[in-house]
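Go through this chain for my students:
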Amino acid sequence: MKHQRTNPNDATSTGIRMTDLICFDCDGVLVDSEGLATETMVECLSALGIELSIAEASAMFTGKSAAHARNILREDLGVDLSPSMEARYDELLLQRFHHQLRAVSGIRAVLSGLEVPSCVTSNSGHRRLALSLRLTGLAEHFGNHVFSAEDVAEGKPAPDLFYFAAARLGADIRRCTVIDDSVSGISGAVAAGASAIGFTGGSHCGPESAGSLLAAGASFVVGSAQELAEYLRHQAAWSLTGI
């Protein structure tokens, strides 16, 4: 199914809100990094004697801020990561990024075709975001419009990050569209009053991903950058170029 809807109206109907700002999550929407992050977490936990499958770790940590991940480790697994282990995780992840990180297929064309302002709204830290966007050649599309959970009191699923981005760019949050692959991101967008679009085009997404995003409040779920381009075109938010 191309677009999964919780709304009976068609995408071309006048019920779809016009967009003044598009907020892209980074990991899993712009860059195909979630699998790399999960593999790294599994490796680090294994060194501590905690064995999780890739699926288990993905369900626990995908889309979570660093602070939220620490809470999960402490409350669910009884682990407090030492500074040295956190540094080891960062080192291993950045190594994987340098060798394996790629932009999500087709997303570069989507960004090139946008005719409205866009930004990044991510639970990742600024250091990781800067590296991810630089390695994949996507940094030029955003300039300094890159916002992190480090910028606000609470990352997603709290709405703080979306309020912050909208305020910094002079946009009405009710006329913002959020593209996110995680339940945390969709929940935060809905709480902020933005339009929430689920994205399942990353390699980490499985058959259950669309249903989870819809349940979290996504209006639509798209399965690829090409489907995202079609949705945004129907939203009269962009010009279809290069796709």
Summary: Strands lie at 3-5, 21-24, 118-122, 146-148, 176-180, 195-199, 220-222.
